[in-house]
Amino acid sequence: MKTIKKNLKKYLRHKAGPEQISAVSRLIPRSVLLKTQRDNLIRQVRYCAEKSAYYREQFAEHGIDPLKVRGIEDLAAIETPNKAVVERPYDFVCCPPQIAFETTGTKGRNKKIFFTNGEVNRATSHIALSFTLYGLTPADRFVNSYNFSFWVPGVLHQKACEKFEAFCLPASKVAPAEIYDRLEFYKINVLMGYPSLLVRLTEMADANKRIPMKAVLCSSEPLPERLREYMQEVWGCKVYMGYGGTEYCGGAGGECIHQNGYHLNEMDQIVEIKDPDENGIGEILLTTLNRECMPLIRYNIGDLGRMTTERCKCGLPTARIMEIAGRRDEKATIGSMDFLPVKAFDELLGHVPQVTEDFQLKAYWEGRYQIMELFYESDAGDQDQVQNAIVASMKEYSPDIYKNYMLDMYKFRMTCVPPRSLRGDNVKLNRWVDIRRQQEKDM
To answer: What is the pTM of this model?
Structure first.
C-alpha cells in the first residue's frame, strides 16, 4: 500500500512517466482511488467557495457549507447548466487564464473555457498515458488531423506527442488527400483525428493503396461500429475511441485494448449519471477535481450516457462510460413516442449499405401532421429501392418507430442528397433538427 501511495503522489506531481503510470494504475485498489477522489473534491469545493463568484452564489442560494462537504452527494442541490457557462464565463474564472478553447457544439453559442498552462500540461499527460495503453512507443510516428482553430484536441494531441517524445506531423483539419499523400513519406503508423475525416481517409486508402497502421485514435463525434470495423479492416489495426469535450480539457476517458467502454480519469473528475432510466442511461454530470482556472461542479455537459464500475479485463480500476446514447436536447417525442432519434437511425441505417454514415432528421409541422423527414446521402441509382430498404430496416431494428409510422401518428419522409453534402466543411453535423416548437410560437 505504501508503494502505491508513493507512486500516486508522483503521478499527481507529474514526476512519473506514462509507462510507469500505466503499470502502477492497474495495481491501485478502487478504495484508494475513491479516497483520493474524495480528498480532491473537498479541496476543490473549498477553492470554489473562495475564488469562484458563481459557486459562492450557488452555495449561499442552496444553503451549502463548503467546509462540511465530504462527498458529491452533499452537492446534490447544485447543477450547473450549459447556459450559465455561456452567459457568465468570467464568473467561473478563479485565477488569471493563460489559454482558452471554445466548443464547436452543433447548437447555440460557443462556450469559452479558460485554463492555465499547468492544466493543459496535466491533460496532455493523460493523453500520453493512453498511448501506452494501446501498446504505442516513442518510436511510433503519428499524424494529428485534429483542428487547431480555437478547439482543444489539436493542441492537446500535439503536446501529448511532444511529451511522449514521438514524431508527430501536425496536419490539422485538411483534405484527406493531403494526409494520404504524406503517410508513406513520413512513415506514419498512427492516425489521430475526427472519425468523419478518418473515414474519408480510409476510403482513399481502400481505393488506392492500403498502408498498414499500428493504431487509429478517434474522438469528438460518434463512430458507428460498422465504420469502425471497416476502418480496422482497411488499416489492419484496432481503432480506439475517446470521449471528452472542451469542458473536460480534452479527454474524459478512452478505450483500452478491449474496446469496452471509456475508462474515466477519476482522480481529476467525478462523472455522474443523473436520473438513469431502466437501461441505466441518464444525463452526464461533470465535477472537476484539480482545476484552478475554471472549475465546474455537477456541470450538465448535455450528453446522455451509461456507466459501470465493474472492473475491466485490462485490470484498470476506473469506472467506465459504456455508452454515449446521444445529446439531451436530441431526446424527442413524436407520434406519442419518446425516443433518441439519432441513436435509433444510426443503428437502422447501419444496415442499409447504399447510404453513407451521415444523415439528418428534421421534425416539423405540416398542417395537422407532424413530419419526420430523413435526409440521407446516397449515389445509388434506384432510390426507390434504397428507401424501401430503409423502411425495412426501420421495421426490423426500430419496431416502435415503424409501428407509429404505420399507424399514421406522424408522416415519415425521405430525401436523398449527394454524398458528403450534409456535413460540408463542418467538423460536426447536427443530426436532429426540431423546429416544431418554433412553428407553434409563430402560428
So the answer is: 0.75
